[in-house]
Amino acid sequence: MNRNRPGPGGHVSTASFMVAPEAQGQGIGRALVLDALAWARAQGYAAMQFNAVVETNHSAVHLYQQVGFRVIGTVPEAFEHPRLGRVGLHLMYQQLE
């Protein structure tokens, strides 16, 4: 968890997580996201942005949308998926103020 960009973009936070496959479905991802949002609010950030959410990671996209993020753009074929080939990366955003 940190600021997304230095300087004039420093009012937007970001975070990055990965949940091990054997731990999925146990609420760990949700706990991480909610903790990151609470941290960002406590630090005074105006928003949080995820820069690279793999579009085929439906559980992550769904979770982020459930807690208030929205997809604001997708970079096509920006991620080399080991089974599916090139897939898009979503940029996801949530206003905190």
The structure class reads alpha+beta
Count of extended strands: 5
Helix content: 25-40%
Please, what is the average pLDDT?
95
Radius of gyration: 14 Å
| Biggest sheet, spatial arrangement of strands | 1-2-3-5-4
Number of helices, counting only DSSP H or I runs of 4 residues or more: 2
Backbone shape? globular
Biggest sheet statistics: 5 strands, mixed
- The quaternary state of the protein chains shown equals single chain
Poorly predicted regions are: none
Measured between the Cα atoms of the first and last residue, the distance is: 18 Å
- Write the H/E string, N to C: EEHEHEE
Strand fraction: 35-45%
Short description:
The chain is an alpha+beta fold.
Pick out its properties.
single chain; 97 residues; 5-stranded mixed beta sheet
What are the SSEs and their pairings?
Layout: E1 2-3, E2 12-14, H1 28-43, E3 47-54, H2 58-66, E4 70-81, E5 85-95
Q: How would you characterize this protein structure?
A:
With 97 residues, this protein is of the alpha+beta class. The longest helix has 16 residues. A 5-stranded mixed beta sheet has the order 1-2-3-5-4, with helices on one face. It has 2 helices and 5 strands, in the order ββαβαββ.
